[in-house]
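Please fill in the sequence for the structure shown.

STRUCTURE ENCODING:
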């Protein structure tokens, strides 16, 4: 993946997103403070302070992070995931 696309995502009205790796692993980026971008590598910090390093060649997609469902709003499936 072109890392410039990720940099743009961080600076143009940030919204949480996930990166999918070639291994099938998903890296959540809930806030810009949880990611560092180098020349050919991305480092993402997890909720438990774990660190995942991913080479740009192994990042296959970037998608919006699904917003959490609100509980108690009524309707089918409310509050479930």
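FILLED IN BY: designer on duty
SEQUENCE:
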């Amino acid at each position: 993946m072109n890392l410039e696309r990720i940099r743009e995502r961080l600076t143009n009205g940030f919204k949480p997103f996930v990166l999918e790796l070639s291994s099938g692993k998903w890296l959540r980026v809930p806030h810009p403070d949880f990611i560092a971008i180098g020349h050919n590598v991305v480092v993402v910090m997890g909720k438990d302070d774990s660190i995942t390093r991913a080479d740009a060649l192994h990042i296959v997609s970037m998608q919006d992070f699904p917003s959490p469902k609100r509980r108690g709003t009524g309707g089918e499936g409310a509050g479930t995931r």
